C-alpha cells in the first residue's frame, strides 16, 4: 500500500448503519436521470462529500457492476452498502434504491391500464411517445459512439440486428453468442476489441483471502439461500392465485435478469416481444407508455418490467387489481434478486476480477451487439408510434421525434424534462382541438 492510499484510507469516515440507511432511502426517492446521473450522485455523496469510500474503491466497484447483467447503478449502491456494512448493508442499499420507483410505477401502471386510452390521459401518452422514440435513438447514437472503435464492433451490431429482426433468434442466445465471439476473436486478433490488454495484479479485496473450502462453502450457502428466496414467492403466488400469469412472469423476468447486459434498452425487445406477441398481456403502444413512465420515475430504467408485470396480472382476469399488484411485485422480485446474488457472490473478489481479459473482451463484444439490439427495439416501437393506422407515415410524430432527438444529443434538456414537455404538448393538442 503506497503513501497516497494510506492517506486516503485514514481520512475515510465510517457511517453507522442508521446514517447510511437515511442516505440510501433519500437516494431511492431522488435517483432520476438514468444510470449516469445516479452514479454521479453516489460519486458526489459517498466519495467526495461524505468520504465513506475512496475513489479507487468506487471505480473498481463500478467496473465490476459494468461486467454484470442488470442495472449497474443499483448494483453499485448494493456494493457500496456491502463495503460499509456487509450483507445487510448491501440488502438495504440495493432495495432502497428501487422501492420508491416500484411503488410509483405500480400506481402509474394502474392509471395507464384503467384510463390510458381515455381523454386527457390518452393525449398525454400520445405526446410522450415520440419523445420515447427519440430517447431510444439517442441511446443508439451514444452507445454506438462509445462502442464502435474499429471495424469489428459495427459488424457485431449488424449481426445482432439481423439475427433478431429477420431470423427471430432469441435475445439470450444473441447476447451469449456475442460474448463468446468476443472472447474468441480477441484471441485471434489481439486489440480488435476495447476490452483487450493485460493488466497488473490488483490488491486483494476483503474476503478474497479465504481458503478454497471457505470460498466454496460461501458460494453454496449464498446460492441455496437465494434459490429459496426466489422460489418462495413464486410458489406462493402460483398456489394462491394460479399459474396464469405467475409462472410465465417468473420464467420471463428471471431469464431477462440474467441477460440484461448493456442496460435496460438491450433487454426491452425481449420483454416487449414476449409481453405483446407471445403472452398478449399488453399492446405495443402500452409498452411504449411504460417505457416513458420509467424514464420519468426514480430508480433504474429496468423498472419498466414492474409496469409490464402489472399488465400481466391485469390482463388475465379482465382488470383484477389485486392480481395485477401481485404480478408487479413478483416481477420486481425476480428482476432484482439476481443483482443482489451477483454482488454478494463477487464483491469480495472485485479487485481480482478487474484483470480478467476474457471478461473485458466479452463485455466489449456484447456492448457492440447491444447497439443492434436497441436498433431492433427502435424498429419494434416505430410501428406503433411513427406509422399511422392507415399505414402512412405519422408526420407529426416523426417531426416531434426529430426535434426531441436533436435536443437530447445537444444536451439542451434532460430526459425527464423532455418527457414532461411531450406530455404538455400532447395535452395542449387535445385542448386546442
What can you tell me about this protein's structure?
The chain has two domains: 11-95; 96-432, no CATH class. The model is unreliable at 196-206 (pLDDT under 50). It contains 18 helices and no strands. The longest helix is centred in the first third of the chain and has 44 residues, at 72-115. 77% of the residues lie in helices and 0% in strands. With 433 residues, it is an all-alpha fold.
Separation of termini? 69 Å
Total number of beta strands:
0
Structural class: mainly alpha
Main β-sheet, in a few words? none
Poorly predicted regions: 196-206
Order of helices and strands: HHHHHHHHHHHHHHHHHH
**Beta content:** under 5%
Summarize the amount of helix as a percent range: over 70%
- How many domain modules? 2
Number of helices: 18
What is the average of the pLDDT values?
A: 85
Apparent shape: globular
Radius of gyration: 22 Å
Summarize the structure.
This protein is mostly helical and 433 residues long. Helix content is 77%, strand content 0%.
Key features of this structure:
18 helices; single chain; mainly alpha; 433 residues; globular
Topology:
Layout: H1 3-10, H2 17-30, H3 34-49, H4 55-67, H5 72-115, H6 119-147, H7 152-167, H8 171-188, H9 212-241, H10 246-257, H11 264-278, H12 284-296, H13 304-316, H14 321-346, H15 350-353, H16 357-385, H17 395-409, H18 415-432
